[in-house]
Amino acid sequence: MKSLTERLFFEIPHRRGYVNITDKVAALVRRSGVKEGLCLVNAMHISASVFINDNEEGLLHDFDVWLERLAPHAPITQYRHNMTGEDNADAHLKRQVMGREVVIAITDGELDFGPWEQIFYGEFDGRRRKAVLVKIIGE
């Protein structure tokens, strides 16, 4: 059994943002030498997300607008969590909707995606350094 564990780091300059991390994860799969296995990619912070979807700019914009309607940032007084001195309750809710992690099959040494699938890091409370864990296991 082979395995590889790596962390990718991000510092998004705005409160929210999306980064396509497919190429970085694919490079790690190649480096691992795993031909048949699984690749786990998960956000290591409670106000960030990893998800799979289409890499289309309009769709990323639509996610952002939709999430802001579901859990608007302001007014921050609408959230009990923010009474602790935080202002990021909306980010926790957005992460819950978008998910913590993805698992992708590795077949013949490559990420085994459906049509149009790409891996994204979603940031909902940015302006500080955060990590994504990539764990690859297999033969």
Describe this entry's structure for a reader.
- The chain is of the alpha+beta class and 139 residues long.
- It has one domain (2-138): Jelly Rolls (Sandwich).
- It has three helices and eight strands, in the order ββαββααββββ.
- It has helices at residues 22-32, 57-70, 89-98, and strands spanning 2-10, 17-20, 36-43, 48-54, 101-107, 110-111, 117-123, 130-138.
- The strands form two sheets. It has a five-stranded antiparallel β-sheet with strand order 1-8-3-5-6, with helices on one face. A three-stranded antiparallel β-sheet has the order 2-7-4, with helices on both faces.
- A hairpin with a 2-residue loop joins β5 (101-107) and β6 (110-111).
- It starts with a strand and ends with a strand.
Name the shape in a single word. Answer: elongated
**CATH topology label:** Jelly Rolls
Largest sheet: 5 strands, antiparallel
- Widest sheet: strand ordering: 1-8-3-5-6
- Residue fraction in strands: 35-45%
Radius of gyration from the alpha-carbon trace, in angstroms? 16 Å
Summarize the structure.
By secondary structure, the chain is α+β, with helices and mostly antiparallel strands. Helix content is 25%, strand content 38%. The protein contains three helices and eight strands; from the N terminus they run ββαββααββββ.
Could you give the topology of this structure?
Layout (H helix, E strand, L loop, with lengths): L1 E9 L6 E4 L1 H11 L3 E8 L4 E7 L2 H14 L18 H10 L2 E7 L2 E2 L5 E7 L6 E9 L1
Antiparallel strand pairs: 1-8, 2-7, 3-5, 3-8, 4-7, 5-6
